[in-house]
From TrEMBL:
Transmembrane segments: 23-43, 63-86, 136-157, 163-181, 254-276, 282-302
Location of the ABC transporter domain: 340-578
PROSITE patterns xrefs: ABC_TM1F, ABC_TRANSPORTER_1, ABC_TRANSPORTER_2
Pfam families: ABC_membrane, ABC_tran
Species of origin: Cellulomonas phragmiteti
Protein name: ABC transporter ATP-binding protein
């Protein structure tokens, strides 16, 4: 993201602002630690000077130098440790604060956001992105002080020892840094292309892996893998060309900045100067010992630059998640009763960047009376699922209002709303916890008898009893549940929560007859005495509904009972006939 005009802090600067002072303190401490870390070497040089001097040994002075070197090493260690403590404390506080903010925010974003992005984006922000910022605050920034302080302090000392030799070393390092900067600039210029090629490989990989089962069934592996292979080849070609264009400069910079090169060149120059009587041989020892320190930290710059780029991306992603609008609730209304009303409801999904918003519900008026079952039917893409998610406030309508028990959902506190409206959708979410905990999620105080009663009503009790640890069996560890079983656990959970209004998205796929009978029994149990809205993907299941609402292209086109609608010979009758011609024989074949 680019900004113009007065400089506004970027997402990374804003994110770490609360701990900025402590990061600065840790950086200063690390700089001091790195600077004092050079002192023992300097004192060693002075020790050599004392030992090699023609004059008699001044033992006291030499011991003083040894003591000084030890003390400097100790101080450097202590300063480094203090820096680590300060930076890690700051990092701990920052991680906790950011994770708390994210968790609180994620609990208030519309449920529809999760349907659209899956839980992967939330996990990435909470775990991976916070981890990248940790790397920056706890390690990268303080360590950069060392990268700067060590060569600077060394250079200042070496200039005082012999400015000519220092100049030789400086020319080498400057040439190396210039080459390195060129290599980095070349690399950065192609970064966009690199990201594109990498993106192509990852989307081709995802596509290939996702479709692998279907592809294998159809025996067309070669065709399916061709896009993946083409993307991988294109990436390899790009990478080879990229490396070729930067290899010479990169290798040149590494050679110039390597400790052996700098040492050999400077010592050779020192020997020549000493032979010409223009420098003291002991000064050459100083360069032999300290010249590597001029360039050693440079090698860390590449990795640090990558960590800074990574943390910038992570902070931007965290900021994006925090910017997702929350569902605001005035908290001023409590539903009275279980009537659900949709008044002139319009809905448009948020468009992808660059696209125009596309309205999918165009002014729906619908009242669901307490204790009745209403089935939503219609062609694929008519807006059934979108409509069904609105009473559970997955999102707010873009026009009109949704009321439950006379209260506009925007005025109902979230906990009251979810006690009033329950939902069981196809992608059932079970926790990696015991069956009991999964069923009692909304009522942790439920007794084991209440949990079992709900499981019995949901026709899952027998299956749970047969599990290795019964109701204590952990889902995903002790037992793997089929889709139908998971759905019945979710139904048991909803039965126990006992919400007066219920939204159900019926399974799309045909399952075997006994499993379907179990699910239908469980659903009937669930529907008893509640206001139920069910999205029916398979027509035979709607026959007994009190009312059938036919949606087409985001509008209600018919409304009535099964026999009324058949007699009307309109949209529903056509759907029914089409289902009999196509889907029914296919389902029979599956059975
Ligand atoms: N998350 C989303 N973002 C953008 N558009 C969406 C999203 N979900 C659904 N749509 C669009 O909204 C329209 C209605 O979709 P919806 O899933 O509500 O229909 P449906 O009647 O339930 O279909 P089906 O029976 O196939 O499940 C479709 O055009 C669909 O492409």
């Amino acid at each position: 993201m680019t900004t113009t005009g007065p400089r506004t802090p970027g997402p990374l600067a804003r994110l770490i602002a609360p701990v900025r002072r402590r990061v600065v303190a840790a950086t200063v401490l690390q700089g001091l630690a790195a600077g004092t870390g050079i002192a023992p070497l300097v004192l060693l040089v002075e020790l050599a000077r004392g030992l090699l001097a023609p004059a008699p040994l001044d033992a006291d002075r030499l011991w003083l130098l040894v003591g000084g070197a030890l003390l400097a090493a100790l101080v450097s260690l202590l300063l480094g440790a203090a820096s680590t403590v300060v930076s890690h404390r700051a990092d701990d506080d920052l991680q906790l604060a950011v994770r708390r903010d994210l968790a609180a925010h994620l609990s208030r974003v519309p449920l529809g956001w999760y349907s659209r992005h899956g839980s992967g984006r939330a996990k990435r922000a909470l775990h991976d992105d916070v981890g990248e910022v940790h790397q920056l605050v706890a390690h990268t920034v303080p360590e950069l002080a060392g990268v700067v302080a060590v060569p600077l302090v060394t250079l200042v000392y070496l200039v005082t020892v012999d400015w000519q030799l220092a100049l030789v070393a400086l020319v080498l390092v400057v040439a190396g840094v210039a080459l390195f900067a060129r290599a980095m600039a070349g690399g950065m210029a192609k970064m966009g292309e690199y990201a594109r090629a990498m993106g192509d490989v990852s989307s081709a990989t995802v596509e290939f892996v996702r479709g692998i089962r279907v592809v294998k069934q159809l025996g067309s592996q070669d065709q399916a893998s061709s896009r993946f292979v083409a993307a991988a080849d294109a990436f390899a070609d790009f990478f080879v060309a990229w490396s070729r264009s930067t290899t010479a400069v990169t290798v040149g910079s590494f050679l110039l900045l390597s400790a052996p090169t700098v040492t050999v060149v400077v010592v050779t120059a020192g020997v020549l100067l000493a032979a010409a009587g223009r420098t003291d041989p002991v000064d050459v020892v100083a360069f032999a010992l300290l010249a590597p320190a001029l360039c050693a930290p440079m090698n860390a710059i590449g990795a640090r630059a990558q960590q800074i780029t990574g943390a910038r991306g992570a902070a931007a992603r965290i900021a994006d998640v925090l910017a997702v609008p929350e569902l605001v609730t005035t908290g001023t209304a409590t539903p009275e009763g279980a009537r659900v009303e949709l008044r002139g409801v319009r809905f448009a999904y948020e468009p992808a960047p660059g696209d125009e918003a596309h309205e999918v519900l165009h002014g729906i008026d619908l009242t669901l009376e307490p204790g009745t079952v209403t089935a939503l039917v219609g062609p694929s893409g008519a807006g059934k699922t979108t409509l069904a998610t609105l009473p559970a406030r997955f999102a707010d309508p873009t026009g009109g209002a949704v009321l439950v028990g006379g209260a506009d959902l925007r005025d109902v506190p979230a906990d009251v709303l979810y006690r009033t409206v329950g939902f069981v959708f196809q992608d059932v979410q079970l926790l990696r916890a015991s069956i009991t905990e999964n069923i009692a999620l909304a009522r942790p105080d439920a007794t084991p008898e209440q949990v079992r009663a709900a499981a019995r009503a949901a026709r899952i009790d027998d299956r749970v009893e047969a599990m290795p640890r019964g109701y204590d069996s952990v889902v995903g560890e002790d037992v793997q549940l089929s889709g139908g079983e998971a759905q019945r656990v979710a139904i048991a959970r909803t039965l126990l929560a006992d919400p007066p209004v219920l939204v159900l998205d019926e399974a799309t796929a045909a399952v075997d007859p006994s499993a379907e009978a179990h699910i239908q029994d469980a659903v009937s149990e669930l529907a008893r005495g509640r206001t139920v809205l069910v999205v029916a993907h398979r027509l035979p299941t709607v026959v007994g509904a009190d009312r059938i609402v036919v949606l087409d292209d985001g509008c209600v086109v018919e409304d009535g009972t099964h026999s009324d609608l058949l007699a009307r010979e309109g949209a529903y009758a056509r759907l029914w006939a089409a289902w009999h011609d196509q889907a029914a024989p296919a389902e029979e074949a599956v059975r």
